[in-house]
Design a protein that fits this description.
- The chain is α+β, with helices and mostly antiparallel strands.
- The protein has two domains: about 40 residues, no CATH class; about 120 residues, 3-Layer(aba) Sandwich (Protein Transport Mog1p, Chain A), CATH 3.40.1000.
- A seven-stranded antiparallel sheet has the order 1-2-3-7-6-5-4, with helices on one face.
- A hairpin with an 8-residue loop joins strand 5 and strand 6.
Length: about 180
Amino acid sequence: MAERARGRLRWGAPVLLLLLGGCGQPPSAEPATVGHPATSERPPVAWTGLAALDPCTLLNPQDRSAAGIGVVGKPKDIAGLRACDWTVPGTFGVTVTLSDTDGLADLEVAKKTATKTKVGTHPALRVADKKAADGTCAVLIGVGDGASVQIDVSNTGFSDTPLACRRAGTVAGLVEPKLP
């Protein structure tokens, strides 16, 4: 009888640690399902945020071709955030920046320059100052409540803001399916 109790303790402790190990973790991207996996539509997905993503791999060669980008991206650090920069000489540049700590509501954006939109299934903001007509545009994609992806486009010569917004929209559409 004592041997059986020790056996339960040996197996019970790791199970208890596994159950308690999930406490304090970020919420999952989807609500947890209850029941047997065969009866659930989709198994639960663990929230990894943007930490698992490399911004330079968000545009593969086919994506770059579709966006008119013929160069490989270069990793960058922008105010402590991971980013990747693609500069097409004499045409335009694109920077994709990942923030694990700032959702759309946390970003400081002038209301008169922002337009609410959606990119795929994610809420987004398109940011462009039409009056300035400076050839720049950004698409900010919300990833959950506390993360975002910023896609900035600057045209060479800082002109044609509508073209910059089309380019930013194209890149956002290519990046969005790869986001959690």
